[in-house]
């Protein structure tokens, strides 16, 4: 009963040594390639078998009606769903008239490697057809970071021991059949044949272009491909197609030692406005540029781009090879999600799957951007510029809801609210403060005053106005925000959620301060000094419910008076609770899906004393079931802060391995961007103790047993700092930029190019006993465990090789 | 710009003197006939024009999927919708080859009269065809109170001034086309052709029978008709049909002074179990019985049944003819809804329309049964026996929700939950306590110990267990019920709703007391003395939130800390608020849709001091917008109790005239049973000050300016009491039964067959200033107003006559 780990643990790559068709959908997500504009799931070149075929373009969606058993005012009438666009990665192979299909014949070996330095997915297969014809197939796939519209595949076929007739068909296919959706509400709605053909032409030079549009959202997509082919004399190439297929067929006869090589360049463009001819020409031009660069050129640019990224972002972990791999895997996917955004959102699953319908949530601002801000800040700016671009929609939504300012959607692609369940959607107004916090964080980290003025200020002003519309003063002069939903989705529509109130407080203050810094711009937005004063007053009076008897903050007012969930009588199969218990029961009890008050203690740490943090952490730890992937990393950060280092380490493991181990059983729908960010957060904010605000970069490094060294890089205000944490001390050095004063366990020190070492402070707090709900304890982290990577169920027979 | 009142005010009838086709749907509801088993809307005999064609059988429904934009655990997957069954009331007329249709030719006169003593709807029309052929048509329609399965129509045609060829077609038609549904969530889902034909035969004796079944709910309905025809010699009768139509055609030639008379008997039966032949035979037998009784016999039985009802239920109001008519109209419709229930529910609209999909709600137990209990108690018993019959479904629902005991559905036909929005459905658990209160009330009023043991005890035990599952003790030992929704639908999912907690308290106590009275039966239900003790303990510790600063009870915990709704900036067109503002905003503010705490003060009055009642009433009065028809009568009761007699009178008017004036603009979908009950409640509980519990019948009579005398009858513990309230004093008399001790303004007196007079006490409370939200003041009641009845919009041209 050996459990097969799907992936080999290596520092710079994710390697699958055998093909496990039972976890195909999961590996397609893990091996997805993207540049933030184009996303290709790691589907096999030949298209079948597949878990979920997927080719996505950022913000290319179709509308679908949102039905309600009982309608209500302000409910969104239509939702948006990411579209599986024209598949350009299809390359089919016939060997002596037998189609290459791993389900038939004999697969002697099969390896896939995601190379995080090269930015490529390499596949090597050796296969015999049912009639015994044996070939070696190698493909290398990339989605270019430097050519935003372009992806490419180098595909090579070699006979092993006998001459073979080989036919390769390189295709563009639209409206692929996708499997029916599962009942899991976190999966996507299925769209059947969402693309309407507008054009399918094979032009000269073997360039094929197809243009489609969507029915309801009226978006147009163009896809094109062209090829460089290298084969023995007599290799014949034909181009045909029709309907939703476009095909280049290459036929040749290969002797052992000979090889057919195909470099396939494919390009995409989409627009809500541009004409069919314009879109056609756009992809043809992208293909011309790609061909000019050539396969080798694309690969070289890809590596250079990544070298630059890793130089400023890499995290090195000694003593735990799994976490080392996982944190790089996370950073790589974050970069893929954000590299070439250009004012488009980062979805919860990036462009790696259709989970959550391809929607972007607050996760982006609260988990993904805090990493990007200090490692690849351009992506943070891009994502926030997208928020600024949808401000008119958010303002219209606020007006529809009878509010002022802007009410950003809980989930969206195009900026309009897609949430069909308001208590966990519309009511979760904290998304607006999360956006404001991301603005403040980005501006603090970059000192990008142009951004602050043009993008940040409008966002801060609009969100501050929302909080003024949402709150009111009570008879005691406290500023209350009633009836909203915080991050914990097992509570909803409660009064004075501490997280929301603290984040709103910071939102209001930031708006006032930023408006005063850009008075001329603020005036154009109608901001008066009176309004700014009101923001400060509301912020100062914000109400934070606190239970004196228990000595803890209440997640929301009245929370600690509720019955505690009956954890003792909840069985392991009943998690996640939301699939087994009604919201009614979850909402009225003390049970926490994901860090809420604990997240407030991370993001607004200065509002709590160390003693409050320790007491609150212990209290909420006993209630938190982590039915969300957005929880473990935050718990890691606070566990580290209160000195529970082993616990923090366990949570780090959970956050880091969410997708490589498919811990929540839905990696099939795409990887979890926020949890991938969580590995960095747990390491850097957790064990590095990094916090930054108001120009101050603070560290409180402390390592758990098992991690022998942690080295990370942080970009801050034009500097690139390298922090090297050892069990007993930490060494700071600037790799770039002028000297910077930072804080180490509260001690100020100015760091420059010369390394400066300091001893780490011991855990400062008396150890409160901390426990989790029974059965929900995180798996203790024991580096060197044999099991690693995505686990293939043992009851499945091992793949024949 | 004269506004046309649709109805003439008469003490015992509702008379429409002209046909107003623009309010046809409303008059169809007002003129609906029913016996609680069969319901016929007041559609014109000839079927067209119509507002909404409707023929209903109690509990005959079809299933439809309930869609959700975002699914959740425990959401009902299918809803039930009342079916418009085979229409048996169709009688078409051709006069010299021209169809009688009021939209063509000339309608010289048209009158419809609902006779509340005869139990009939009489229609008289005089019409000339486009070619000038003039006829007089008279039809009298009844749904028999004594023959549960039978309805009948006497239809007469006479030429006025010249001999005419007359053809009458009497039909059964299934799957009539119904108009598309409106966007109003309170209307019904439209079912297209819900009936599948199983049989359509014309047997001997001109008996036609059609049997249909529904696709999903698998219910079978049989409809049959037979005729007695009286016409001149040469009158020919044919019977034909096919598909979903069955037709008897009568052709004759009438000279002036001659008449064609048709007595149409039609009968219905439905079953989930019985076979097609059994159902066929069942309606044939019902028709045979009806024919044996004959038209005159049916009419005589109908009148005798009503004479008996009115003798025990009539309310006489002097000084306000409109209210006099309205209270009788209300009682008449209540009787129609409940007379022949036989363990079926009373729906929110009875069987008068498809509003609310034909569902039954808590309205029945909280508004309708409190009237029936003291006027026609058999209907209350029947409705509660229906609840007992669906107890297994309610227990299964509780189990599904992770609770114990029974969780009765918020809205249903067959006993399964149909609510597609849980915060205003599932979370409104008070429905369970409302059922328990109805049991307690019925048993108190009737001393029906058999019912108490066999029906009441299982209901009380199952609901008490629910409250034990829903509540918990807090650190102060208070028993809390968190996260539930009270009657006010502008708040939801709140902690410790006072109404719910008080009703739960009474539910728990009643269960304990009843269990002790029937220990043997209780044991069979698994009740131990320990469990009963726990019920008492929970009841004793129940928490009632009270705002010390304001000196008022909080509707729910924290309610008075919320922002007050911005009434000043809410325009008249923005009511009802739920159609113009999101639930999000309504829930988080102090705004009350309908009496909630005020209803608690009515139903659990002994939990409040007189001073609390006055203060609470004033506080909530300023927040209550009455966007529900379930509010005015309760406000009338409390206004009367706190001495605001003019205000009580205004609310009486609103409750009483809800349907006769279409005050909420949805009488088209059926009349409002609870509001119709509200006229009685406002008069008897309000101005009569009647309360009853624990064998004590109390009165505190007091009349407003305008009502010069109020006389009502109350059935209580085998007695029939007559209470005659004059401005200065009240006279009590038993019409039936042994002497009874009652209370008059706190003074005990024993009443018997001899009248006993007492002076009325003056209003006992200091007048607190009471105001309503601006623009939401009730219309002051000025008896003798010219406007009366359903008002036809003045912009419509008067109907040509």
TrEMBL record, chains A, B:
Protein family according to the UniProt entry: Belongs to the glycosyl hydrolase 65 family.
Domain Glycoside hydrolase family 65 central catalytic, chain residue ranges per copy: 328-680
Molecular-function GO terms, alphabetical: hydrolase activity
Biased composition (Pro residues): 761-777
Coiled-coil ranges from the UniProt annotation: none
Domain called Glycoside hydrolase family 65 C-terminal: residue spans: 690-750
Keywords for the protein's UniProt record, in alphabetical order: Glycosidase, Hydrolase
Protein name as annotated: Glycoside hydrolase family 65 protein
Residue intervals of the Glycoside hydrolase family 65 N-terminal domain: 17-271
